[in-house]
From TrEMBL:
<dbReference type="InterPro" id="IPR014036">
    <property type="entry name" value="DeoR-like_C"/>
</dbReference>
<dbReference type="InterPro" id="IPR050313">
    <property type="entry name" value="Carb_Metab_HTH_regulators"/>
</dbReference>
<dbReference type="Pfam" id="PF08220">
    <property type="entry name" value="HTH_DeoR"/>
</dbReference>
<dbReference type="InterPro" id="IPR036388">
    <property type="entry name" value="WH-like_DNA-bd_sf"/>
</dbReference>
<dbReference type="InterPro" id="IPR037171">
    <property type="entry name" value="NagB/RpiA_transferase-like"/>
</dbReference>
<dbReference type="InterPro" id="IPR018356">
    <property type="entry name" value="Tscrpt_reg_HTH_DeoR_CS"/>
</dbReference>
<dbReference type="GO" id="GO:0003677">
    <property type="term" value="F:DNA binding"/>
</dbReference>
<dbReference type="InterPro" id="IPR001034">
    <property type="entry name" value="DeoR_HTH"/>
</dbReference>
<feature type="domain" description="HTH deoR-type">
    <location>
        <begin position="9"/>
        <end position="64"/>
    </location>
</feature>
<dbReference type="Pfam" id="PF00455">
    <property type="entry name" value="DeoRC"/>
</dbReference>
<keyword id="KW-0804">Transcription</keyword>
<keyword id="KW-0805">Transcription regulation</keyword>
<protein>
    <submittedName>
        <fullName>DeoR/GlpR family DNA-binding transcription regulator</fullName>
    </submittedName>
</protein>
<dbReference type="InterPro" id="IPR036390">
    <property type="entry name" value="WH_DNA-bd_sf"/>
</dbReference>
<keyword id="KW-0238">DNA-binding</keyword>
Length: 277
């Protein structure tokens, strides 16, 4: 970490979270020295991270909160995490969707942010198993143009059926059959976790199978995941790193993690960096 009094709160908290996870814990006095901020500032940051459910405060510092591999947070709980990072990722990923193409969006809060940026891409055909993602497009269509007319170039949206998960994704045999019969130019895939050992993973067994169908039906696979997903492992793996064309992540990744990502991923895009590879 570099000493910088001008770091935005979100950037500072991302650095703190990375330090806690990488070292298995951090003390307040170490963080104040590394970040060159006050004791009070660090304690406020730790309070904010604890409310997000990503660390546990202990006497004098914090330790990472280790979740069970089967734990699946609800959509609202995940929406409050890494909001700025998700917006950056969504903006960068939207540039990968060509007008008139057929795309798929899996469930998740990052793909939900991406959907809002895709509203400006004309003539898309969008297949999704996310109730929230589908609602973004349907709401825009209902708003329409002048006099309530359909917006020119509005996306055609197909929502798969299936059983609803805590994160508002539709999974199971109905979703799997619908996805398996289609073909996509590009799949934008949200993940619970991504690692060298486990690849892409999720705590939901049924969602893992649905995501496998998505991957098999896509010519290109683009994973959209903020830096906190790297190193996280869910109960079930559903994809290998070499099946991904690109990972779009955010500037919260440390230099060490960035090097590891670049070594094992075919393509890495760090949103917000002009020289992203």
């Amino acid at each position: 970490m570099s000493d910088n009094q001008n770091l935005l709160a979100e950037q500072r908290r991302a650095l703190i979270l990375d330090e806690v996870r990488r070292r298995g814990g951090a003390r307040v006095n170490e963080l104040t020295r590394r970040l060159n901020v006050s004791d009070m500032t660090v304690r406020r940051d730790l309070d904010a991270l604890a409310r997000q459910g990503v660390i546990e405060k202990v006497h004098g510092g914090a330790v990472p909160l280790v979740e069970a591999s089967t734990h699946e947070p609800g959509f609202e709980a995940k929406s409050s995490l890494e909001q700025g990072a998700k917006e950056d990722i969504a903006r960068a990923a939207a540039a990968m969707a060509a007008p008139g193409s057929a795309i798929a969006l899996s469930g998740g809060t990052t793909t939900y942010a991406l959907a809002q940026h895709l509203l400006d891409v004309p003539d898309l055909t969008v297949v999704t198993n996310s109730v929230r993602v589908a609602d973004v497009f349907h709401t825009a269509q209902r708003a329409g143009g002048p006099g309530g007319a359909a917006r020119p170039g509005a996306a055609t949206v197909v929502l798969t059926g299936g059983v609803r998960t805590p994160s508002d994704s539709l999974v199971g045999p109905v979703a799997d059959q619908a996805i398996g019969s289609l073909h996509f130019d590009v799949l934008f895939l949200g993940v619970h976790g991504i690692s060298v050992e486990a690849g892409l993973s999720t705590p939901n067994l049924a969602e893992a199978e649905t995501n496998r169908r998505f991957i098999r039906s896509a010519r290109r696979v683009v994973v959209v995941a903020d830096h906190t997903k790297w190193g996280t492992v869910g109960l079930s793996s559903f994809g290998r790193l070499d099946e991904i064309e690109a990972l779009v992540t955010d500037r919260g990744v440390s230099d060490e993690v960035r090097a590891e990502m670049a070594e094992h991923l075919p393509g890495l895009v760090v949103a917000g960096e002009e020289d992203a590879a």
